Amino acid sequence: MSNKKNTVFLILQDNEDARPIIEAVEQDNPDANIQYQPGMVRMEAAGRLLVNRVTVEENLGREWDVQELHLNLISLAGNIDEDEDKFEISWH
Amino acid sequence: MSIEISAKSITPVRLAYGNLERRFGDKKPASRYQEAVYDIQPTTNFQYRPLWDKNHDIYDVSKTAIVMEDWYSFADPRQYYYGSYTIARAKQQEVAEHNFAFVDKRDLFDAVPEAVKQAVRNILIPLRHVEWAANMNNCQITDECYGSNFSSVGMFNAMDRLGMAQYVTRIGLLLDGNEEATLDAAKQAWMEAPQWQGLRHAIEDMFVLDDWFELMVAQNFVLDGLIFPLLYDRFEKKLTQEGGSTIAMLTEFMDDWYKETVRWTNALAKVTAKESAENQALLSGWVAKWTDRLSVALEPIAIEAFGDDGANELVEVKAELLDRLAKQGVTV
Amino acid sequence: MPAKKLNLRKRYELLTRGMGWETTYQKMDDVFPYDSFEGIKITDWDKWEDPFRLTMDSYWKFQAEKEKKLYAVIDSFAQNNGQTNLACASYLSAIKLFITGVTPLEYGAHRGFAHLGRHFRGDGARIACQMQAIDELRHAQTQVHTISHYNKHFSGLHDPFHQFDRVWYLSVPKSFVEDAMSSGPFEFITSISFAFEYVLTNLLFVPFMSGAAYNGDMATVTFGFSAQSDESRHMTLGLEIIKFMLEQHEDNLPIIQRWMDKHFWRAYRLLALVAAMQDYMLTNSPMSWKEAWDVYFVENGGALFEDLSRYGLKMPKYHELATAESDHISHQVWSVFCSLGNATGFHTFLPTEEKMDWLSEKYPDTFDKYYRPRFEYWAEQKKAGTFEYQKGLPQLCQVCQIPMVFTEVQTDPMQISYRVTEHGGDKYHFCSDGCKDIFEFEPEKYVQAWLPVHQIYQGNCGGPTLPEVLDWYKFKPEDSGDYIGSKDYQRWQEWKGADKKVKQA
Q1: What is the pTM of this model?
Q2: Is residue B238 within 8 Å of B306, Cβ to Cβ?
């Protein structure tokens, strides 16, 4: 396998619900590239992107169930690892 | 100060999709239910025959012996389309969630007599396998049926059954502080205990039925028409009298679900029987066959649940079922 | 006794596994008769792991929330006559093609996944397929509900399901989904979940829905994005099933590679309609087909197949050709629709000067050289009143059923790509090596094809004349032809005022 890391991405609807998630992604993935497109926000990174429950909860000021992410999800690329603490996308 | 809301008035050029105008006239807008379930399924000019079934088209009226002039004669009295269905179930699950949390938080099972708990383990928990089978059977109906009204109602029913199998499983977990002992014992009983074998045998025979409408009758008319009144209603009431009202809190979903479901199975029985004497004869034959078979299969479970009263309870439930179906025009 | 705390993974396992059983009164092979004839070897279904652990209670909760939001938008869209906020009524040609060509695919997927949801032997895989089966039903129903308001105000949306079974260009999506549905369960899921949903669906939904937002169609944006939230689960199912099959047995690889090659090409050909939609039907296009292809196939698809290369799976056959064609297909397909615009259920229109400049910019190597002259020539003819629709019906590819419009883009882009093969003494015609290969592997399947043009010639479509055929399609006279001067155009002018001329004028 090459050392070049392929891009993973996560696209969310551009709305109020998604804001704390997008901010959490910015905080936890400093290298992520975040693009605002009509109606949606595309977040991409090399190899791996993490949505961390604790960070979202800090931004949101309440408990947050990782599965709530699905409400605003538009698309993604990569292998998914979801549990109660995180939603992670990566290429192997 | 007056607030004036002025919406621009634009006259529509038509009020409904063509298929619905042809069915219901062009004078008023179609309902969401009508838009969602009528005529979406392809009916003709199929491209290829299924590799595994060269004798049928992808959608084929001849997959059942029932004959309908119009397969859309049946309408779900609940008028469920996906949105109204999920919103209704979300409300019910919120109540259920609250009840499960309450029982858990207050340790309400601690106050339930051990004999009642054991009865739940023996009778109710194995029903998760019955619901699982009902999920498979309704998925089969969704797969094989003719018409988007049927596939819609079949699909919702299939997912309901998965949901109820999961609720029964959660009762089993709650009984044992999230240990799996109860679930394991129930599975073993389902596989091996003599009192469950008649039912399991009947259900496995249902898995291989050729005619999806016969499966509809066996599962959704007859088996549900016996099990829900017998076990989720009468048996629950008995448990409540014996100090197990906690259990009834946890099976409220099933109770409400069955009351709701009877509405569409009644409507389906009625419209299908009314179509022709041949349909009526087929339905009667299937109802007779499966009521006989399943009431025999359920007898040992009824006896375990109700003791000496068991046989009589079952006879009453069976009579209620046949009486209700007779009112829809299906006489045995 | 304090209850043991269950984590999501364990809880999900207990709520989805162990309820099924090894049947003893009936043979398992009779209970699950369809999951072995394709040759896929599964040694341990328990190795199947769901990426998303949704139990039914969470499913109802989250989905109901999505539905409440969606229907609030649909209601307010109708109450406020949201259709008047579109960039232009000509944009609706895209929606007309969508409800007649895509919504029925959602329904087909619903039934196909119900088949898998019953017939896969593994409990976990069955549940995953059932969730997708009900999601697909959702998509069909929400699309009908959303587009219902447009149907009340515009032509060409009134009979999508009648038309799907009959219309010449709708046999492209119909034959695609029925190809998958008439295959075995593993091929079906490879086709729909992997080749279509994982590899290609972003090309349909993301740029198209973003395009809807760009053209003021808030109703379509809302159902589209709401459906995409389910689609992300479906795509992931596609990736998981491929990995699962490849991990189960090494003998599965060549079978899956062949299916991958076949259904990639099938789905890609279907998307040629989307390419035309994106570049030409959208009044304002946020992204060209070629750009979308580069981002969503070349880049993401490349990453995906690199990830799967550890199993030995290779990029689908003819993917280089598809990339080379990305400079051409939208122009070719739109040209066909314009030249047969008297027989389409949506309006056609020639690209405006502004649109052509945009196309020149997006397609610097091809648009001015090959396609602009054609559109300009037609525009002159229209001005002079000498434009005529093509007489006679186009020849269709036996497999993808698209008229023979694609060209030899790698050697001579002006030369129609044309392949032929013989089977049982008859000649069969194809648009590409991809389609010809598909036929030659399963000729008995593809000789059955219900080709609309053949059927018209055989007299099975209402009669021998065009008006009779269109009547049989339930096309109304106002559904077809040029957008300019149509009833949709007139209505739009009334709403917008004659002074504000629409771009196509």
Answers
A1: 0.95
A2: yes
